[in-house]
Design a protein that fits this description.
homodimer, about 400 residues, alpha+beta, L-amino peptidase D-ALA esterase/amidase, Ubiquitin-like (UB roll), 2 domains, six-stranded mixed beta sheet, 11 helices, 14 strands, globular
């Protein structure tokens, strides 16, 4: 059994509240022993789910006591009733803990447009509260309960020593597509026992998300519920991190977020390939990410990889409509290390060798370069298979 | 047999040049009796195909004598050799006609990144030139020869009377996806015998394309080769259109372009539904189109329609990430006329009735409204089926 770095100052639990028709675990709690510093990054969708609207009012905060998460129902596009239900969820957990509802964060994932079954949810919060432990297994239970169409749990951890103290970082995520009949979205929770001010957590989380959860795509449909929370209990002791220690902590959070983010397209609905796209030679990181994202979201690129087809014209043409100003003669492409296109002209290549390299590996690497500057970006997506269409078309809600 | 309005002053022809491995017709010519006024609108892709780069130098023009089009090879991402081949194609047709190469426009569609087989192309232009006629059947032959993955030809025409003269408008288009193993892209040619100045043609064509070919999507992958040309022979006689006559002519061109544009997603690869998206109540037409385009390009919306699934959360959430600033409480949705979401709150509805209406009709209508202003846009797309994935993944190049 692999031991993960479980941060002190937190307990976790999960139960089957009955929200998921399948009867799988669907309600998870993280509860702190003492008020935590916390930060959050949320969806940019104008149709933000009720839990997102609740949390946004609260973070960054120095006094978070718990997080309640349900899967199976997104509580999104649910109007005022949805907002009242998000608040009622926070109130239920707050009453159990004996704190103010504004010390509770909530998150939901699942079908859009249906009201939460509050009887099940309220009973589930109570039942989960009674099961809270500090055991690794409870955190894994929580990682299971937040899944929707995911085929596996997504957990990563780091241990580091800062200012002479052992610091633990644990990250738990879910996501396999936007949402749908079997529901999905992107949620992540990063817990640490380091002592960090909420303003620092906020800056660290924004920078980390920018190069991790903001650099992944399954089909490009931005969820209404995307939520990433970072909670620091300070239970490791010592005064708040600053200077080089804070920088080391920030680097570990960023690294952990990248590891978690990559797991999402790797578990994308119907996916048979994880595709890593590196774009370099750009004026700005935004330019590099725009090109990478456009390639990542092209159905023609994704179906070509699914078919093991070295149809590189689809890749360079996707780069061409990313909205970044460059000349064709600046663009070069490698696919799985094979140079296919250089400075705007096609190169001779062994199509069978490239096709075999795609077919024989789970990961496909696309490298695009232009000649405008030093900025680069890395982006992850998955291929598009008939199974994705079956999952999202054939099983009706 | 339906009679189309074939404009005077043009001849057409098509042949099998051997570029398409299938041996289907793949080379078409339109040749004018006298120099024509002409305008063009082209792809915004930075990787513009060689024929697009050739044509852009030339239009608007008052002296176009012919158009040479090949299918089966896009002549895109082909570097300097590709540009020389586009020029050589123009030179070949110009030599046959006895005009300057700059009086010839070219267009290509098909696989990206391979050099044109110039022996076949040159022989094909010669053979087609010898077959040119003014018959309706020759224009239909040309409409066939420009197809790639399309399952049917796309032709529309209009007859109108302006300044006491009979005016004919004929439009021919192709397109079923960006491109790929069996190749595609979007090309359209509109021919008229009206007398119109090239500057007027240019303005009319830009406005028409803006609400037709710029409002369609199959999978959102902007081709390297998209080309729409409008040629006016003036063979109907009379002086150049102006004032109200010119406005009537412009309205007919716009109407014809909408009819042709709609045929493209209706024939989208693997499509079982044409989806029409109307967005209203926006501050600007750009806002309305941004929302419509984002909904049209959501794989989750497109798979839901393929499955006859009234999963309206996918539609409103796609509207939410279109980049248009609105509040959830402003948004309303109808699907096939059924109100599902009103001012940010879900409405009770008969899911079976909505599902049956999707399954029983070829066309699905999505209506979204916000409350910010008078602007609206209409957009067309198709559903996403496993067959699309098979076409683009399973048949390797």
């Amino acid at each position: 059994m692999i031991r993960y770095h479980i941060p002190a100052g937190f307990r976790a639990a999960a139960v089957r509240s009955g929200i998921k028709p399948s009867g799988s675990p669907d309600l998870a709690l993280f509860v702190a022993s003492n008020p935590c510093a916390a930060a959050g990054v949320f969806t940019t969708n104008r149709i933000a789910a009720a839990p997102v609207r609740w949390d946004r009012r609260i973070v960054p905060s120095e006094s978070i006591m718990g997080v309640a998460i349900n899967a199976g129902n997104a509580n999104a596009a649910t109007g005022d009733e949805g907002l009242r239900n998000a608040q009622a969820t926070a109130e239920t957990l707050a009453a159990k803990i004996g704190c103010d509802p504004d010390q509770i964060l909530v998150a939901s994932t699942g079908i859009i447009g249906r009201q939460l079954p509050m009887d099940k949810l309220t009973a589930g919060v109570g039942a989960a509260f009674d099961r809270l432990t500090t055991d690794q297994e409870s955190f894994f239970d929580a990682a299971h309960a937040i899944l929707t169409t995911d085929t596996r749990i997504k957990v990563a951890s780091r241990g580091l020593t800062l200012d002479g103290r052992a610091i633990n970082l644990l990250g738990i995520a879910k996501g396999a597509a936007m949402m749908g009949p079997k529901m999905a979205t992107m949620l992540a929770f990063v817990l640490t026992d380091a002592a960090v001010a909420s303003a620092d957590l906020d800056a660290i989380l924004r920078a980390s998300v920018d190069e991790s959860f903001h650099c992944i795509s399954v089909e490009g449909h931005t969820s209404t519920n995307d939520t990433v929370l970072l909670l620091a209990s300070g239970a490791a002791g010592g005064s708040r991190l600053a200077g080089e220690s804070l920088a080391s902590f920030a680097a570990s959070v960023a690294d952990l977020c990248r590891e978690l983010a990559r797991m999402i397209p790797d578990d994308g609905e119907g996916a048979t390939h994880l595709i890593t796209i590196d774009v370099s030679g750009c004026r700005t990181r935004e330019d590099a990410r725009a090109i990478a994202k456009t390639v990542a979201e092209s159905a023609l690129v994704k179906t070509a990889i699914a078919g093991g087809d070295p149809n590189w014209g689809r890749i360079v043409s996707a780069a061409g409509y990313a909205g970044v100003d460059f000349d064709e003669s600046e663009l070069s492409l490698k696919l799985n290390g094979f140079p296919l296109y250089h400075n705007g002209a096609p190169l001779p290549f062994d199509a069978d060798a490239v096709s075999n390299s795609i077919k024989s590996e789970r990961e496909t690497k696309i490298e695009l370069a232009i000649n405008q500057g030093p900025a680069a970006a890395r982006f992850w997506t998955c291929d598009l298979t008939a199974e994705y269409v079956h999952i999202n078309a054939d099983y009706t809600t």
